[in-house]
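Practice problem 4.
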């Protein structure tokens, strides 16, 4: 396009120069010079020829410009349609992602609210105790049948542990929920060495107090089991105690108080359930033995009746064989009678069935 424009401009400049030359030649040449007239004619023809070339070049230039403009317009329209399509698709994807982000933000807001509620619960000692007791009750209710446990059981000394499990020897196993959260939280948030030592000492004091309370209040010789369970309703707190406070754990063992996490409590409940099942089996051993004796008696009686039935079936089989033999002989004799074959076929007298004797009545006499 730029080349055609330059050509057109060049032709226009050339035509203008030629016209100027013709004008100058006419103004300077004598009026009666034939050569000058001839040159003027030739120059006019050349100028006319150049004008035709210029018109043709201008026409070609217009056609080229129109074609290029059409191509550019079509390409621009296609590009705009493609860009608009891509823009719509990207906006749709962006809207979908924004919806996902909104949903995630809503879930995050709900989770934040729940965490705040849980923090409020755990910051209150009474609410924290109710939380631990609730988890313990849920585990026990899921693992043991009704009548095998009791919540807020009153001992003879008037103390009421959170839960007791009734074992076969009639001595309940005491389970009490404790949650030393404040001391553990202070330990985790301690920064300096001195703060950590003070927090660790507080953990030892709080947990030791819980151990002493359980051992003194709930371990009664002859009434309860020799061991009590201290339920820690947090796996992380339980792991923290076992990892960093082995002296506290040993102190609990010596006091016959076993610290259990939710997972260990579930395992203990499964063991207790199996113990109760074995005890019920031992209590019902006499009944089971009696029932087995009755079943054995019935089985023996059934065997005698089966043998008698087998004897009857054997006798019936023999009778059926005899009947088949008699039927076969009767069929053979019927065939011989039908064919009038009597020679040499007389049966022994003992095998002939006599005809029944009919008594004559008075009328017939």
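Answer key:
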């Amino acid at each position: 396009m730029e080349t055609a424009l330059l050509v057109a401009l060049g032709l226009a400049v050339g035509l203008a120069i030629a016209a100027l030359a013709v004008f100058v030649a006419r103004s300077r040449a004598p009026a009666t010079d034939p050569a000058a007239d001839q040159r003027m004619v030739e120059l006019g023809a050349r100028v006319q020829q150049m004008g035709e070339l210029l018109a043709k070049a201008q026409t070609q230039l217009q056609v080229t410009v129109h074609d290029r403009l059409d191509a550019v317009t079509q390409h621009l329209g296609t590009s705009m349609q493609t860009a608009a399509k891509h823009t719509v698709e990207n906006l749709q994807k962006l809207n979908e992602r924004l919806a996902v982000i909104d949903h995630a933000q809503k879930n995050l807001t709900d989770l934040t609210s729940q965490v705040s509620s849980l923090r409020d619960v755990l910051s209150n000692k009474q609410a924290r105790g109710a939380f631990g007791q609730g988890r313990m009750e849920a585990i026990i209710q899921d693992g043991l049948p009704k009548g095998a446990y009791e919540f807020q059981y009153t001992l003879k000394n008037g103390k009421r542990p959170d839960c007791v499990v009734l074992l076969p020897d009639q001595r309940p196993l005491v389970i009490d929920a404790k949650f030393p959260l404040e001391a553990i939280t202070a330990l985790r948030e301690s920064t300096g060495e001195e703060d950590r030592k003070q927090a660790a000492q507080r953990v030892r004091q709080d947990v030791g107090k819980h151990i002493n309370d359980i051992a003194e209040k709930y371990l009664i010789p002859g009434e309860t089991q020799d061991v009590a369970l201290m339920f820690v309703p947090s796996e992380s707190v339980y792991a923290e105690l076992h990892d960093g406070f082995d002296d506290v754990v040993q102190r609990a063992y010596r006091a016959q108080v076993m610290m259990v996490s939710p997972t260990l409590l579930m395992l203990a409940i499964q063991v207790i359930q199996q113990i109760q099942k074995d005890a019920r089996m031992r209590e019902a051993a006499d009944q089971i033995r009696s029932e087995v004796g009755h079943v054995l008696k019935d089985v023996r009686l059934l065997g005698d009746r089966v043998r008698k039935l087998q004897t009857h079936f054997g006798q019936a089989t023999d009778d059926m064989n005899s009947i088949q033999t008699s039927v076969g002989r009767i069929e053979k004799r019927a065939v011989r009678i039908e064919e009038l074959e009597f020679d040499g076929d007389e049966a022994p007298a003992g095998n002939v069935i006599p005809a029944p004797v009919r008594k004559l009545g008075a009328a017939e006499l």
